[in-house]
Amino acid sequence: MTTPTSKPASTPISTSHMAQEARFSPVVLRSQASRWQREANDIIALAAGRKTAVLVGRGSSGNVCTFGSYLLALQSGRQPIEFRPWLTTQTLPDSDWSDSVVYAYSFSGNSTDVAASAEWLRARGALIVAVTGATSPDAHLLRVAHHAIHLGCGPELAVPATKSVIAQLFIAAALAGFEIEQAAEQSAACMEQIDFDGVAPRLAEFLHGARTVTWLARGPSLGGALDAALKMQESVGVPAFGYSMAEYLHGPIASASAEDRVLLFSGADEPMDSKQAVTAALLARGVPFLCLGSDQTHDAQLPLPFPQARWARTALLAYIAQLTCAELALRYGIDPDQHPSLRKVTQTR
In the chain, what is the straight-line distance between the N-terminal and C-terminal CA atoms, in Å? Predict the structure, then answer.
């Protein structure tokens, strides 16, 4: 896929910073993927022999950590640790982390709890790798990191993270040992096609007026579903949730009604039993839903172009959610770039 072939949507398109920054993601992928791959390979070589992978992040970066945990487990057969920063505020027994490599994600590099976690782990022998957009050596995270991979995606003016999330997802894949350059090119082309096809305005129309929105996915794409829910909370203030499809059946589905909306993302090429079970349950409850992906097993299906690598499809879910939230904000008359209660850099401990 290289050239969009469908007719563009006639629906007005958001021109907010959030939307513009999201639409810059294909440029970032094409310009930075080669460097990310090279630097990730160097770090993997330096970390050889350290058997435990640790991931630290908050907000969108924390959702990238969830994505990364799946990919690291797929490559190593070992479940990584998603570290909880709260632990660094407690009195704990002495511990040795010298067998660990820590991937600490923070776009600003000044997320205090992420930096404090990295510092705490470094003091106990861990190798610290910062994944950040910060370039100043005075950034909290860079002061405690042994090595860093810079996103290279430029500044973000909107409070919701957009192109930085896409960058982090691909770096996480590279650090897990996946080849990302071809996937980055294919994903960039898919993003352009999705934008040209007007997928986001269509989804915004479907979600407009919903009491709640739930995003469902499986495997690595759970990180994308979690971030899609976060974007909706940040940009339009709609209560939103992200679950794995299997987990949704273990209780949360009981609260869904006709006033709610559910989006199911299928990053697989084959039908999934859990997806079929969820759609059957939603139909029985009269809950409006839409399936996003390539699996043509249901009428309520919105096909999407996909890159060949399954893990890379998570980035498409994140991209779609970013543009959809920007479009939905336009319909609600909300400025998604600013929030009276949120800041771009969140400092907590």
Answer: 45
Kindly give the residue spans of alpha helices, DSSP state H, lying in 208-258: 222-236, 245-248
- With residue 289 as reference, give the H or E element that holds it: strand 289-293
Structure-token pair, residue 346:
């969140």
Report the C-alpha gap between 3 and 20 in whole angstroms.
Answer: 20
pLDDT tens, position by position, 68-81: 999 999 999 999 99
Per DSSP, what are the bridge partners of residue 293?
A: 266, 303
Strand, coil or helix: 304: coil
Predicted confidence (pLDDT) per residue in 106-115, tens digit: 999 999 999 9
Q: Among residues 284, 174, 172, 266, which one has the least CA distance to residue 219? A: 266
- Among residues 314, 243, 241, 248, the alpha carbon closest in space to that of 278 is found at 248
Confidence of residue 10 (pLDDT cuts 50, 70, 90): very low
- Which tokens sit at 207? 């979600």
- Label residue 9 by pLDDT band (50, 70, 90): very low
Distance CA 31, CA 336 (A): 27
Q: Which two tokens stand for residue 84?
A: 């909880």
